[in-house]
Amino acid sequence: MKLRYYHTKVPNFGDDLNAKLWPHFAPDLFDDSTKEAFVGIGTIIGFPCAPQTKLNVFSSGAGNDPLSRWSGLDVTYWCVRGPLSARHLGLAPDIAISDGAVITPLAEGFPRKRVSERGVLIIPHWESLNDPSWNEIARLTGFELLDPRGSPESVIGRITEARCVLTESLHGAILADTYGVEWAAFATTGNFQISKWLDWAMSCGHKLSVTIVPPPTAQGILKYGRPGAPFGDTIGITEGAAMEEMRRRTSEPKPPRLQDRAKGWIKQTGVMSRFLNMSPERTAQALIDLSSRLTAPSRESTVKTLQERMLDRLEQLRRSAR
Fold it and tell me: Cα–Cα distance between 139 and 284 in angstroms, integer?
């Protein structure tokens, strides 16, 4: 079967992890089949899979694409990211395991365990890094900016050495949690998907809170809109809100993205930043404050149980394919 996952010209370590994990654990599964696919890590349930028409979904999440896109395809759900995806798809609860990245420490080329406790990492969403102010924020905080567009080996290797992780990237949180590193979630714009975050968090038994951090300039706001709460607030994400977002995002075509309508607005970024009192200094102070409000990572026993369940389910898939 063909390994399918989301990838574009802009790399993202969470998506690119697919090409490192699955061929390691199940090398006999993969070829260039035009009929059958293995759909892996990512919020990709419903994403375009042509020409393959037989899909094996493994640790994927719902929330980015209309489910109607897979209508008429032969889809087998071996496991999904979390209980919200399972509930939304009408699957049995045991199909919800976790995000596939949880087995990273067992794969060749990655640390087996946490290496050290050196420094605070800031991991913005990869699209937030279109704003060049993040380097200045890192300088002002004394924290280290970790670019999620790096290779899985380099990004995850650095996470395993961190004292803590402040992250707008979901896989920044997942890998920190897997390796026993404290973390905190933040959002700077409306480009933060609460359903996929809570889906994963519930798979580990976490409650989820997100701190709304003011972005350094209005560039991200003009592209993606404001977050769903005032800057400075820390909000708890409820199942009801997350399920409503998941239903909305998977039941209708996406509207035109704000950045597609805002090309002419970018020139106004400076004016809007001053009007909204946005600056790298304000972002830096918010992140410094956030570094003292961290989420304890999952227990080692929890991570081990999830890893065992996932590898057992992968073996079931392998046997069925023989």
Answer: 9
